[in-house]
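Handoff note, outgoing to incoming analyst
You'll be picking up this chain. Sequence as last confirmed:
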Amino acid sequence: MKTAVIYARVSSVTDRQSTERQVNDLKKYAEFAELQITNIFEEKVSGAKRNEERPVLTECLDFCIANKVDILLTSELSRLGRNSFEVLETVKRLIDAKVNLYIQKEQFLLLDNEGKPSTFAPVMIATLSTCAELERENIKFRLNSGRAQYIEHGGKLGRKAGSFKTMEQKKEEYKKVISNLRAGKSIRDVAKLNDVSVSTVQRLKKEFNL
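Most recent structure output, in case you need it:
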């Protein structure tokens, strides 16, 4: 039985978005395709972040390559990079390591039965990644336009006065996270152990110089 890894990502670092639906849908595909899932990587990080700022994606790709995983499963191509250049770089890493890629949204497989890119793979990947990048820019434009209109009509952006937490408050609230980081645990493990987002752990690690 071929081995598979799932990578799921949502942009919101709060509980407003969850990777649960992505993971469940990809699990169903793996069962249908008779694939053995060896690991699941879940990340909460903005789609505008560079790949080097996505520690779970980096860990996922390294795991797939080091363990010679047969196929990486993800819901959309945009999960693999913030722009077409990063997506293509990620895809090239997978091709070089002979790791197949399944994209659920387009029902697309990167490699054929001989482990080579399918005939239309390069065109498909370039087109999908460019479309995703354009859509992200359109969303950013609409958000900025909405903010400008809100301010024009007297609205104020940012947190309310007094809503910022002091370092002491953070130290108390996230004492277990800080303790785990000081113990040398990975960012991903700390996030799972404390049921917080990876980005929260990253921020605390930076703020407390851990």
